[in-house]
Amino acid sequence: MSSDSASDRAGRGQSIGMLLRRTRENRRMALSHAAAALRIRAAYLEAIEDGAYERLPGRAYALGFVRSYA
């Protein structure tokens, strides 16, 4: 049984943040544009892409921001 979930990909050396960054960059979207479209601060999106979840305001917000960004 093979699963190709985000957590499986993360386990193979690609974090969720890297996946989100690569997807955004492949769409040629600036971080500031994604932030405006999602109404999430660019600093928070950057923290997600960097995997620096401690820079987010709290667990509930972090989960919501990651879900929205994905």
Question: Mind explaining what this structure looks like?
Answer:
It is globular and about 30 Å long. The model has no long low-confidence stretch (mean pLDDT 86). Helix content is 64%, strand content 0%. The protein is an all-alpha fold and 70 residues long. Helix 2 (16-26) packs across helix 4 (42-50).
Q: What would the principal axes of the Cα set say about the shape?
A: globular
What is the overall number of helices?
A: 5
Helix content: 55-70%
Low-confidence stretches: none
Query: How far is it from the N-terminal to the C-terminal residue, by CA?
Result: 25 Å
Structural class by SSE content: mainly alpha
Mean pLDDT over the residues: 86
Order of helices and strands: HHHHH
Describe what is shown at a glance.
The protein has 70 residues and is mainly alpha-helical. Helix content is 64%, strand content 0%. The protein is built from 5 helices and no strands.
